[in-house]
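haha ok so turns out i had the wrong file open the whole time. this is the CORRECT one, sorry everyone. sequence first:
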Amino acid sequence: MHVAGTVTTFRGLHAGTDVLLLPNAWDAASAALFAAAGARAVATTSAGLAWACGYPDGDALPSASLSFAIRSIRRAIGNLPLTADIENGFSGDPDDVANLVCELRGLGVAGVNLEDANAGPDLLAAKITAVKRRLAENGDDVFINARTDVYLRELASGEAAESETIARGRHYLRAGADGFFVPELSDAATIARIAGAVNLPLNLMAAPGLPPAKRLYELGVRRLSAGASIAKLAYGAGRAAAAAFVRDGDVGVLFAGPAVDYRDTNALLRKAEYGG
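then structure:
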């Protein structure tokens, strides 16, 4: 199912007058709730989605589970753009990654995240080029957010980390990337220099101590992702409530915190199911 115009709409959200704030969903219900909360687009979290399907994060999720999750989330959020975190594309073969992205595009995603992880920039660049070429042959497109893990995996430090990040960003730009994602980057001066040196919308991931969104925009950031943070909060609250319940048998703990309303949530997903 292609959602008409969502790639163009999603690309435009990176060129507005504020930072695109992306909550990361892990299933259809979380995605529907984020859409109802006013999100302009929804992303997936690879960690949260893998956990929801019973797998660890890190390229372990079966393609069938990924496709089912994307299809369910796509249905739950109506016409909002959806971007999927597909880690390293679940393959070292650029043609296999292109096949996967074409499949997800057919399910209605507007964007994907592809990361270099420990594989190096040349392989990610080859994957980006392969995806863009395959989609162009089909008269289609997708927003590719190229993620570098220089800071996340501490592949370098100080000035070397900044230089390597800029070099990778420019490499991915030449390969056809539409956005540049640098998780764990948080220093304001470094953010500004990287944003100015790489001619792509800069995407950061929420982290303690990160400047507010308004300040990030001034520094050149155009997209801020929640990452796995919301999923971790939800699972943490669930674990704490379950532990107290099974330990003490006190039902009060099950009604003490913020919770979604049963009828409202059911109605939200019924509306999505029937396209209302």
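The first helix runs from residue 6 to 12.
again sry for the mixup
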